[in-house]
UniProtKB/TrEMBL annotation:
This is PAP2 family protein. Residues 155-268 form the Phosphatidic acid phosphatase type 2/haloperoxidase domain. SMART domains: acidPPc (SM00014). Gene3D superfamilies: Phosphatidic acid phosphatase type 2/haloperoxidase. InterPro entries: PAP2/HPO, PAP2/HPO_sf. Pfam families: PAP2. It comes from Flagellimonas lutimaris. The lineage of its organism: Bacteria, Pseudomonadati, Bacteroidota, Flavobacteriia, Flavobacteriales.
Amino acid sequence: MLLKLFNRVPSLTICFILSCSSIFGQEKLQIGSETTLSCSSIFGQEKLQIGSETTWELFKYDTARIFGGMGYVYGRPLYWEKEDWFALGGVTLATGLSYLLDDASSELFVNQGKYVPTAIMDYGFNVGSPQNNYMITGGVYLTGLFIKSEKLRRTGVLLVSSASAVGLLQQLLKSAVGRARPISGMSKDTFRPFNSNREFHSFPSGHTMLAFTNAYAIAKQFKNKWIKTGLYGVGLVPGLSRLWDGEHWLSDVVMGIAVSIFTVEAIDKYLDNEYDKKYNMEDKKIDWRLNLTPSQVGLVIDF
């Protein structure tokens, strides 16, 4: 008799299977793809194997998922449904309204920036910079990889994939749009596409996108609304700091936040089909079904 126990996305599956094995065969208990415990008959051998996947194999799998997530998010607009287009309309409206307020809000924020503590300004700049961003996201992933925590690995993959996706996108948009920064002394309506001068790389805010992407991705790992709110607040500081120092308009920051949310949500959905475990996973209902094949009959219980 063969007894198998294995994990399967998105639930734990217990499958009892009746096979054609005789007393000369094996009885085997398998848990997940990484842990195997087998116990044979009196004519066989005993074997215990735990952690069959190596760190290198896990790393290769996760790297493929990082690039897969990026491809998934870039291709999502091709499969948008009505509610997705409504969401895009809402983002466009919010960005348009903030655009109307760009002049007044920029003056207000720059004046406020004179009184903001240097430590907060430095924090906002440093957290939103690409090199520091990858130190944080990479640190989370590598920790999960070496301790072989699937939940932490998945969180790290979500962080790295999301940050890479928004990082590449914001570089392309900055160059293509060519919007003048407030600090340049030019108006909010000044655009010079594909200008190499960084003074024309205002839209969208890259610091906002990277920082809020991290904050939003980490917040998704918690159910507590106060923890989520706190993380969102921390993630907004880099965007505010860029308004205070005159590097961005309000509409640059608003669009950056919207792109961050869309990116994390899309990649998180993609990873649901690639990993068995995640933080903040909802409880599943028990599901029963009969498994029939030419060589075996089984009862499968999902819960």
